[in-house]
Amino acid sequence: MAYQTPPTFILGTHSVGDSTADPGSSHFDSERDVQALLDAYHSCGYNHLDTARDYSPSVPGASESRLGRAKAASRFLIRTKVHSADSGDHQPAKLELSIGQSLGDLQTSSVETMFLHLPDRQTPFEDTAKAMSDALSQGKFKNYGLSNYSAAEVQRFLDICEKNRYAKPSVYEGHYNAIVRGGEKELFPLLRKHNMSFHAYSYFYRQPPVQIAVAIILDLAETHGISGHAAAMRWTAFHSHLEGKFGDSIVFGVSKVEQLHKILDALESGPLPDDLVEAITAIYEEVEGAEPPYHLQIG
């Protein structure tokens, strides 16, 4: 599927955080390094950031506080996510606390979007939906969204909002790429029906069939002089179910400023060669059903 309008490209800031506590994932820690990353991204004409209360993993709030000190909210549209690591985190009082902490650390009174990072299946969705609707009406964020929920859970959440006249979520963030495409079958139709946009993120895979498929795609891309990572990004941007007209986005992360430029160059290179797209489709059909889910099944 070729795109009609390109999705928005959003810099994910999982790599902004405490490098002492999380040396494997936090690559931008000092004020100088964080500012260099943001300056490089902004100078390329982009102004969207994605973060979360639970970044970095061992020091919740480390990413938001560094973005706050860099005055990121003054020039970027920020999407963040509430603390969602433990059962009960989506109780109204805890949501209010997490939202307040995020806004305080980001040094702003409101953000573009506030996500429920992971489903809290121990807290009634009715309570969570009301709390998010109330916070939205208070101007703490312009939109709110669901992340890592199953399609059935999204439907249940929407039903609760409609029944009680709560504001509905307008965005979904989940796992999606050339190999992880389960959301196309059950989730995307639901999102389109309810005018919800999709923000796609991606990560590494451990399932042997998927690893083999990824290796094949990497080799095929190299024959075209395209890196495997660039091919994956360009497929998601130009040949997937993502549509800019629906507000869809791609969230990507980097560990170095140089990597940022490579990814943006790839995304700005346009669609892939037709034969490579066809090959990627054929490879996906071989692993379909064995790929990771688009949502998280824990909890």
UniProtKB/TrEMBL annotation:
Annotated NADP-dependent oxidoreductase domain residues: 10-285
Cited SUPFAM superfamilies: NAD(P)-linked oxidoreductase
Record flagged with keyword Chaperone: no
Example of a GO MF term: oxidoreductase activity
Domain of life: Eukaryota
Record bears the keyword Magnesium: no
One Pfam short name: Aldo_ket_red
Swiss-Prot/TrEMBL keywords: Oxidoreductase
Alphabetized InterPro entries for the sequence: AKR, AKR_Detox_Biosynth, NAD(P)_OxRdtase_dom_sf, NADP_OxRdtase_dom
Name used for this protein in its record: Aflatoxin B1 aldehyde reductase member 2
Organism: Colletotrichum tofieldiae
Organism placement in taxonomy: Eukaryota, Fungi, Dikarya, Ascomycota, Pezizomycotina
